[in-house]
Every structure is written in C-alpha cells, then in structure tokens.
Amino acid sequence: MDYTSFPRNNVLCIDMRSFYASVECVKLGLDPMTTLLAVVGDENRSGSIILAASPALKKKHGVKNVSRYFELPSDPDLHIVEAKMGDYVHVSIEITKLLNQYVPMDAIHPYSVDELWVTVNGLEKLYGNYQDIAKMIQQELLETMGLTCAIGIGDNKFLAKVVMDLYAKKTGIAECRYEDVEELLWPTPIEEIWGIGSRMMRNLNRMGIVTLGQLANFPFDRLKKRFGVMGEQLYWHAWGVDLSPVYGNFIREEQKGFGHGITLLRNYTAEEVMVCLLELCEEVCRRARTSGQAGRTIQLGIGYQQEVGGGFSRSRSVYLPTNITMEVYRVCLQLFHEFYDRVTKVRRVFVTLTNLSEDIETQLDLFDDKPKNKDIGYVMDQIRDTYGSTSILRASSYLDAGITRDRSKKIGGHYA
Predict the structure, then answer these.
(1) Residue 16: what are its φ and ψ, rounded to 5°?
(2) Is the pLDDT of residue 106 over 80?
(3) Out of 3, 15, 199, 330, which could bridge 178 as a Cys pair, Cβ 3.0 to 4.6 Å?
(4) DSSP character for 157?
C-alpha cells in the first residue's frame, strides 16, 4: 500500500481508565488504582449491572463491567457506590476544558463521556512533539483530577483508537503509524478491532477471515459486493486508512426520525403499558416539536417479558404529518390492540416518529381541533423548558406505571 497520498496527522485517542470508578474513588479520597470499588446502577436491585469496577477489583476478583450486583465478592475492603451520572458528565466537561487549554475546540472530538480524540498538529514550538504532549496531558489529568488515562497516537482517528485499545491500555501510551499497521495490527483477531461487532465477525469468519491481516489481503471487490459501503470501510481500515475529519464541525447525518424507548424495571400488564406509552409519545413529540419537525409514520415496538421472549414492531402512516402527542398515542394504541397477544406481560416499549417534514401550518378542519392541540403541545414544552421536565405532567404520570417522574432524576438511565 502506497500511503503517500493519505493525510498524516498527530491524533491522540484518550480513554479515561475505569472512569466511573475512578471518579468515585477521587470523591472518597481514595487511590483509584489500588482501591477495590464497584459502581452499580441501583443499590436497591440485586440484579443491577456493575457499570464500572476499579482496576484493583478487576485484577483481584475478576469483576467485569457486565457483572451483576449480587455477583460481587464478600470482601471487607470493597466499596460499593451507586452511579451518579451528573458527576461523570461534569468531570467529562472539565476534562474537555483542560484539553482546550492545549488545542482549540474544533480539534477536540468527544466519542463518549470517558473517551475523545484530540488533534495536536503544529504544537511543537509550544509544547514539544506529540509524544511530549501526550505525556503532559496524562500528567496534568493525574495531578489536577487524580485520574489516569491511556493514550493512543496515530495518523488518523482509527489508528489512534485501535492502538489505544490494543496496546495503550497496558502500557499507558502507544503509537501506530501507517507503516506499523502490518506489524502491530494485522495479527489481531478481527473481533478485537474497533467497529467490528459480533455479527460482522461471524460473517467474516464464514469467509475465512479471522485476523485483520487476512481482511486487508481479501479481494476488495468481493468485500464491496458482500457488504457494500461497509465492505469498503472494512478494507481501508484494515490497511489503517481513515479519512474522517480530524478538525472542525464533525459531520452529522440528517435527522431521520425521533424515537424514545425504555426497558421497564418489571413486567407490565396491558393497562400499565398504556400509561408509559403515553409518556413515550409525549417525549417523542416534544423532541419533534423542538426541532420544528412533524412525521407521518409512527412505529410501535413491544418486547415481551424475558421468560417468554419475542414481541412485535409495527408501523402505520397518517395522512398529514403530526407532532401532536394524542394523535401519535392513538395510532400506537391501535397498533398495540391489533398485534398484542393479550396474555404476555411486557418488558420493553419504544415509539418512533419517522417520515419527517417541516412542521408548517396545519390545514384547518371544521371538525377537528388540530391547531389548538398543536398550540397546547408547544405551550407545555415552554413550561417544561422554563421550570423543569416535571413541572407539568399528565395525571397518568402519577400512577404506579408512570415512568417520567423517575426518569427525570436520571441521566443515561442512571441517577444523576
């Protein structure tokens, strides 16, 4: 592969090690690297998932982030804390502010609450070379926040991310350039490569592709024919090529729809589903109104209780685009009554509004209060924006099956 025509940058991929657990250790005045600490989603539920475990807990007891609360060992030195997502978001913002002291904001690309890319081109006269900058960032995060991180360095975001996952998490800082791909990355099993999930792994394995090197040397035309655009990306990534932007306003796809769903904390009956369904419709329509959009296609998804499995997902279109809660709710009720088996309890519900268009003035109808209902929706949105998401609620939200009041206390499904 001739890399002379491809851009070369100094991109750092920074991953905060055991981020949630480390933040909680710092809050308690403990060393994140030596303390046994687990962060759980909900201390009141024995089946709650372990969101984060400190490095020492992982090493001593083999606890993983997918373990359950009840699986934690009985260790007198173990600290168990409930997740506080608001704190983690706040610390993440502070990390971004710290990096902004080194580089402009358009050189910082957040990937998640605990991981981001930073492009450090042209900073040699200020801070030294890119390796010096990586060490400075590591040291400053440790000294100012008490947090450790792993940093991958590459010519592009893909190389920086992959070398961070494979090497920097063990060594602290690792580097991979175009010329290093064959030696450092090609021997790696494809399932360990960022962007290749379990389904794609199985598809590639059936084609005899087990390592990244085999993927790189597989015929390009066959990959493109089998996987389309994704096949092209797989091929170029296997050679270490990634042309995604490293500066500026990163590309966002046009909004295709608005969806909102929930995995319920317990199995719901049909009557209870109708309560949370109305609240989901309210949130979907609020997001559509905020974006000045309305949709013609309404989709309802239902997942049955875990013991039974299955469920259904059905959609229906309306004549005129809408973002009125009760109109969307009525369609969802129609779908629910039509396809629900009337026996099995429900554990998952989601609502989606698609086939979008601009929310323009609605055609008047002598026999309908559509303009009035639309105005009511916008007024309710303004009240919530001003006084909080629970400042005005429908009466059904105060029933036991209501979900809005509890969810308003959470960020990302966990308590703030």
Answers:
(1) -75, 125
(2) yes
(3) 3
(4) H
Q: 43's torsion region: left (phi>0), alpha (psi -120 to 50) or beta?
A: alpha
Distance CA 70, CA 48 (A): 8
| Domain 186-238 homologous superfamily, CATH | 5' to 3' exonuclease, C-terminal subdomain (1.10.150.20)
Tokens of 84: 């506080």
Residue 272 is a catalytic residue:
no
Question: What is the rounded distance in angstroms from the CA atom of residue 370 to the CA atom of residue 322?
Answer: 9
CA-based nearest residue to 353, from 382, 318, 401: 318
CA distance 49 to 82: 11
* 352 beta partners: 259, 299
d(CA 340, CA 350): 14
Rg (CA), the chain: 25
**26 phi-psi bin (left φ>0, alpha ψ -120 to 50, beta other):** alpha
Residues 384-413: pLDDT tens digits? 888 888 888 888 888 888 877 777 766 666
Residue among 332, 326, 263 nearest 297 (CA): 332
Please provide the distance, in angstroms rounded to a whole number, between the alpha carbons at the two ends of the chain. 49
Beta-strand pair 11-16/149-154: antiparallel
Q: DSSP assignment, residue 324?
A: -
Give the CATH H-level superfamily of domain 257-409: DNA polymerase, Y-family, little finger domain (3.30.1490.100)
The CATH code for residues 7-176 is 3.30.70.270
Q: How many CA atoms are closer than 13 Å to the CA of 178, on its beta-carbon side?
A: 16
The 10s digit of each residue's pLDDT in 165-197 is 999 999 999 999 999 999 999 999 999 999 999
**CB within 8 A of 279, min separation 6: which ones?**
394, 396, 397, 402, 403, 404
